[in-house]
Write a structure and sequence with these properties.
single chain, 662 residues, alpha+beta, seven-stranded antiparallel β-sheet, 18 helices, 37% helix, globular, hydrolase, MGH1-like_GH, signal, Mannosylglycerate hydrolase MGH1-like glycoside hydrolase domain-containing protein
């Protein structure tokens, strides 16, 4: 009782400082009850075991057939599960060779690629390539062991280049290759499968398995299919028409948004041999340049980025939605949180997490496909993560960002940076936001000395969606715990509200003063359903629709237009980001703003399509004044969460199964 009384006193002090009643504070302090549900019963253990088996089976099924499975180049076409490949290289008219093709590569001598289509399963892909005056498209059509690769030079293609067609084995798999002039046989060493291929084109020479073919005329590479150039072109046309027409019929006026979203997700999906899983990191550039190995490639998974990708996949690809939500959730650290980042070298940001959107993503996916085993698979990790926030990031009854110390695991260079102010800012997801300028860090508490309205709001939302998941799989006590905790934080969020300005602000834990440097995260209370209808109307009218702050031709900037940092136009200082638009839009869905929502979706769509239709790019972030994405080096050209801008339009126009928040 002595300990409980001390806890009552502590919580009571917090309550009085932010206006909570003592009875409510005591109720909320009991956030992790011990119950029979905390111990896995045999039936629950069986359900989780079966869920794991189903997931492994799903991953095996995903990694089948021809696709652009190798992260190192989008022109490497790989047959899984054996991992033999047709790798395309280019030799220009002066004899210079390039073997690496990545969308959005900013290297001074890198080829420029414009993606058009990429079905998730490799049924049809199309991409245009430009390098040293040589212009051509590469299209593929695959089905089973059959794969047609058609290379078509453009009318303005500079003559004299050669395409190098290289049948090979990758990732040190046990395959054999036999080559003759204009043909090859490739397959596993046990000869359980052999795929014959031939090349239609003007072969100039062969160097062992590498075959050099003139790019002055079309080239067809036919795997497990004996056909002429005309027949190959016919197959490509058939696959293209079927794929495009089917999607246009489904999405109609929203086809361009869908196609941009689906294409960036398709090209950014690959197989990683180190974990033996199909995943969809934010981009190949981040994965293959940062922590790649020459033999295996590499990957970089970020927390909220990957959950957003899983939500977009859920529109029409259950397996990839499951795969990405699962891989990032199962990356949970020893301390019990999903890390900000997880690399193929084994490093995880064990000091910090990122915005808690996992339960939103998992519930959205479940609501689309209604398979409870998927919930069973991820529930324990999501609950552990939810409890971690309350235990490790609470200060004065609300959440702060933090960076915690930990014992080194990999001794990777980043492990030496923990319990730092910058690490805590990274937990917000908004790496250099001016909201954190001048905010101090408490190295004893491991927290920024600022209660964060955005993280607290997302946490309340997480409690709500996780409670729904708990109800769905019969964990009633957990569901009540989560709702109690969510209600507690929602009530405490009144401490963020400034009645004079009609807005929510971050709040200093040192002196209780508001930090009036804002970002779209200050609209996140709409996600938590914290504002009254009257308060929500003020937020929207006085701030969101205010052209001096967030509204305009292009919306919505990560820094308001009247903030001195807006003109920095540098990363989270002034630029537009898909995830911020998406989360603000989701908050608007909780209130009666139909016209604002509609215009919000249209503006987001316009921004997204401006670059997608012109150049085939899906940018990491965009200029809030011009709508450009390519005006700064700190904007990856093919980063899948940029497609959230189009995803908003799909939701608004009823092209998804996303449940309306209640």
């Amino acid at each position: 009782m002595h300990q409980l009384n001390n806890r009552k006193l502590w919580v009571g002090n917090i309550a009085s400082s932010i206006g909570l009643s003592m009875s409510m504070a005591i109720l909320l302090s009991i956030s992790q009850p011990t119950s029979a549900q905390d111990i896995e019963t045999p039936s629950r253990e069986t359900a989780i075991k079966q869920a794991k088996e189903q997931y492994l089976s799903l991953q095996r099924q995903l990694a089948q057939g021809w696709n652009t499975w190798d992260v190192r180049s989008v022109l490497t076409h790989v047959y899984m599960p054996y991992a033999f490949a047709i790798d395309l290289n280019l030799v220009d008219s002066q004899g210079k060779r390039i073997n690496r093709f990545l969308i959005g590569d900013r290297g001074a001598d890198a080829p420029r690629l414009k993606p058009y289509s990429h079905s998730y399963d490799g049924y049809y892909t199309k991409i245009a390539v430009t390098w040293h005056g040589h212009h051509f498209t590469v299209e593929t059509a695959s089905e089973g062991t059959k794969n047609i690769i058609l290379i078509t030079p453009a009318n303005d293609n500079k003559p004299g280049a050669q395409m190098v067609v290289h049948p090979k084995t990758i990732w040190m798999r046990g395959n054999i290759v036999d080559s003759q002039d204009g043909s090859f046989v490739i397959g596993p060493k046990d000869k359980s499968l052999q795929v014959s291929g031939h090349i239609v084109g003007n072969l100039s020479r062969r160097n062992r398995h590498e075959q050099f073919v003139s790019l002055d005329a079309p080239i067809a590479i036919c795997c497990d299919a004996d056909m002429s150039l005309e027949q190959a072109q016919s197959v490509i046309k058939k696959h293209a028409l079927q794929f495009v027409q089917e999607k246009k019929a489904l999405y109609d006026k929203d086809y361009d948004c869908y196609n941009g979203m689906q294409t960036v997700l398709g090209w950014d999906t690959f197989y990683d041999p180190s974990i033996r899983k199909v995943i969809s990191p934010v981009s190949r550039i981040w994965s293959s340049q940062w922590f790649a190995s020459s033999d295996y490639g590499g990957f970089t998974l970020f927390c909220w980025d990957t959950y957003f990708a899983a939500m977009m996949f859920a529109v029409d690809n259950k397996a990839l939605a499951y795969a990405n939500a699962t891989e990032i959730t199962k990356a949970i650290t020893e301390a019990g949180f999903v890390p900000n980042c997880y690399y193929s070298n084994g490093f995880k940001s064990r000091d910090r997490s990122q915005p808690p959107v996992g339960s939103l993503a998992v519930w959205t996916i479940y609501n689309t496909y209604k398979e409870k085993w998927f919930l069973e698979l991820l529930y324990n990790e999501l609950l552990t993560w939810n409890r971690w926030w309350d235990k490790n990031r609470q200060d004065q009854g609300l959440l702060c960002q933090g960076s915690s110390p930990y014992e080194k695991v990999t001794y990777f260079r980043n492990e030496y940076d923990n319990n730092t102010r910058y690490g805590a800012i990274l937990e917000s997801g908004l790496d250099n936001s001016p909201m954190y300028d001048g905010v101090t860090f408490d190295s004893q508490k491991h927290l920024l000395e600022q209660n964060d309205v955005g993280i607290t709001s997302l946490y309340v939302m997480d409690c709500e969606y996780l409670a729904k998941i708990a109800d769905e799989i019969g964990r009633k006590a957990d569901a009540q715990e989560l709702r109690n905790r969510g209600d507690a934080y929602r009530n405490r969020m009144s401490a963020f509200w400034d009645e004079k300005d009609g807005f929510y602000y971050n709040r200093s834990t040192r002196n209780g003063q508001f930090n009036k440097r804002t970002s779209p995260t200050c609209f996140y209370p709409l996600l938590a359903k914290a504002p009254t209808s009257k308060q929500a109307k003020r937020m929207v009218k006085e701030h969101l629709l205010n052209k001096d702050e967030y509204w305009g031709k292009y919306i919505i900037p990560a820094t308001p237009r009247n903030d001195k940092s807006f003109n920095d136009n540098e990363y989270w200082r002034g630029r537009i980001w898909g995830p911020l638009n998406f989360l603000v839009y989701m908050g608007l869905r909780n209130y009666d703003f139909p016209q604002v929502r509609k215009e919000f979706a249209e503006k987001s769509k316009h921004l997204f399509l401006q670059s997608w239709l012109k150049d085939g790019y899906v940018f990491e972030n965009y200029n809030a004044t011009t709508g450009q994405g390519d005006d700064t080096l700190r904007s990856d050209k093919f980063y899948h969460w940029g497609a959230l801008l189009g995803y908003i339009s799909l939701i608004e126009n009823g092209k998804t199964n996303l449940e309306k928040s209640k």
